[in-house]
Amino acid sequence: YFILQATKLSEEQRPVLLAPVLSRGWAIVENRDAIFKNYKFENFQQAFAFMSYVALNAEKMGHHPEWFNVYNRVDITLTTHDCSGLSDRDLQLAGIADEAAGHFV
Amino acid sequence: YFILQATKLSEEQRPVLLAPVLSRGWAIVENRDAIFKNYKFENFQQAFAFMSYVALNAEKMGHHPEWFNVYNRVDITLTTHDCSGLSDRDLQLAGIADEAAGHFV
């Protein structure tokens, strides 16, 4: 298989495609074309199980998060280095992360 | 099993017990009683395999890292919240992390 080059979201796409993501608790990062979200779980086991789920999918997509973890907290920032900004891959990975987190609610 | 309360390193223990850890590339964090180290791997697979190894051991010890990852990079900070500073658990977890990273050299 091969991975296509990521394409930055166009000005027309941005409001339409970002709206559902922002409504799920993601926020636009200041001074950077990126989105972030903080997740809080019950404990480290859940946080790392979440991270493992996201990691396997990220590797499969060839698109990886920037993330910080301490105990039950995971802070994720998504952006696409290939196109220096947000691409559909970030939206897809955001969806995967929210889906994964949903298993622990 | 049960986990004993962590004890902060004493002033006598610090230079002796920290020396080997510092010689392995760990550094003292400024304005905080903590140590940190940056690891760089070949790719995300290796970085996350490293994190998984550390995570399983951290959970077993009941002592967890603060860490940041992006692609092949993992930055770890260790400190012990129970005793508001460095304890022998941090030194032990630093040893485990270095051992894990050694598998990828």
UniProtKB/TrEMBL annotation, chains A, B:
Any matching Pfam family: Pterin_4a
Keyword Disulfide bond appears in the UniProt entry: no
Assigned EC number: 4.2.1.96
The entry's keywords: Lyase
Reaction(s) catalysed (UniProt annotation): (4aS,6R)-4a-hydroxy-L-erythro-5,6,7,8-tetrahydrobiopterin = (6R)-L-erythro-6,7-dihydrobiopterin + H2O
InterPro entries documented for this protein: PCD_sf, Pterin_deHydtase
GO annotation (BP), single: tetrahydrobiopterin biosynthetic process
Source species, domain of life: Eukaryota
Record GO terms (molecular function): 4-alpha-hydroxytetrahydrobiopterin dehydratase activity
Uppermost EC category: lyase
Assigned protein family: Belongs to the pterin-4-alpha-carbinolamine dehydratase family.
Name of this chain's protein: 4a-hydroxytetrahydrobiopterin dehydratase
